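step=encode ok
step=design start
structure_in=
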């Protein structure tokens, strides 16, 4: 398959990597889901961090502004801090962020207080939150009234779809009950994403007004933490993390009836699925890839390219291993060139959190592939 892209070698990607998170103030930085602003030629990457702790910490919510080209000139702004009020209200444990370009500026979404999603607009010129923070809403169908996006709303929708909620664990993590870390997938009038939880049936949503998630349907398979989605040729594709059987799914746009399309044998770390022109790029990691100084499965990445529901027709276009970690990678289309942002444990390789090395100390950025 000719993507009209030239992928760099792993040696080139890692040789040229530079920190894009704030390494002067923060000991940990993780979980980027970015957007690209073509007018400003800038990637905006929200991430959570900490001043002293390591691994899964979220005492600070920050935003990296990454010039393209020129990732070495990235700068960070602190957005929110746990227990520090903003406009009279505290947003504790801000986590699971993603960003979109909305009305010409970054709109940042994040989870706080375990089960409430919020969003705000960021002014790059003022380096400030513009217009305050608003609660994200959801609609269970086109005729229903918007309501706050909460764990309760997700649970009620799953029950209405006749899902076996006894098999779910919507409150399995004390810091994140509902999770939305799907890279937004545009279809011309809005974006699609997936809502999951610690263990849940992923809910497909579309958002046309930048704040209201309209629930469209459910994938009839349990996923752990995350589900990625992309739109191509009138179909919705999904990639489930932690699925017991098929991890790759598809549905016809507007029909929302998902069908299984195959299994990759992914590790339980966040994959990525995105459209590039008329193809899909499917990025995932595997367990048992050595050397591995961090949690098994978080030190490698494989990227497949294809355009159908048949996994057998996909080609491997990039593979890399780094013993210090390739964690929660984000692949960003910047006017046809691909940049990758990821976390690793290069600065603090021996800090143990929850019995495993998380590999979430610093965000790095590098050119992954260039247009031919």
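sequence_out=
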């Amino acid at each position: 398959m000719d993507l009209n892209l030239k992928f760099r070698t792993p040696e080139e990607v890692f040789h040229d990597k530079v920190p894009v998170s704030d390494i002067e103030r923060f000991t940990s930085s993780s979980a980027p889901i970015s957007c690209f602003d073509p007018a400003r030629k800038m990637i905006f990457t929200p991430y959570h961090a900490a001043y002293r702790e390591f691994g899964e910490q979220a005492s600070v919510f920050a935003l990296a502004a990454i010039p393209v080209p020129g990732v070495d000139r990235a700068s960070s702004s602190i957005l929110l801090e746990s227990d520090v009020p903003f406009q009279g209200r505290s947003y504790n444990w801000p986590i699971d962020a993603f960003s979109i370009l909305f009305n010409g500026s970054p709109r940042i979404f994040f989870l706080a207080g375990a089960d409430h999603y919020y969003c705000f607009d960021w002014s790059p010129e003022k380096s400030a939150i513009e217009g305050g923070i608003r609660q994200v809403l959801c609609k269970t169908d086109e005729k229903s009234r918007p309501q706050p996006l909460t764990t309760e709303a997700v649970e009620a929708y799953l029950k209405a779809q006749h899902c076996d909620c006894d098999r779910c664990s919507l409150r399995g993590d004390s810091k994140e009950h509902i999770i939305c870390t799907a890279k937004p997938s545009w279809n011309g009038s809005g974006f699609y994403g997936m809502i999951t939880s610690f263990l849940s049936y992923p809910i497909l949503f579309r958002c046309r007004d930048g704040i209201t998630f309209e629930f469209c349907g459910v994938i009839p398979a349990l996923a752990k933490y995350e589900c990625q989605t992309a739109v191509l040729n009138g179909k919705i594709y999904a990639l489930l993390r932690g699925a017991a059987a098929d991890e790759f799914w598809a549905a016809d746009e507007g029909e929302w009836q998902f069908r299984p399309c195959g299994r990759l044998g992914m590790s339980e770390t966040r994959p990525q699925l995105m459209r590039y022109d008329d193809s899909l790029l499917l990025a995932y990691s595997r367990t048992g890839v050595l050397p591995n100084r961090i949690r098994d499965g978080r030190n490698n990445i494989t990227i497949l390219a294809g355009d159908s529901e048949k996994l057998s027709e996909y080609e491997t276009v990039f593979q890399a291993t780094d013993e210090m970690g390739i964690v929660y990678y984000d692949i960003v289309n910047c006017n046809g060139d691909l940049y990758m942002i990821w976390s690793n444990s290069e600065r603090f390789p021996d800090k143990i959190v929850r019995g495993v090395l998380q590999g979430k100390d610093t965000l790095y950025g590098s050119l992954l592939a260039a247009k031919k």
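step=design ok
step=annotate ok -> The chain is about 5% helix and 45% strand.
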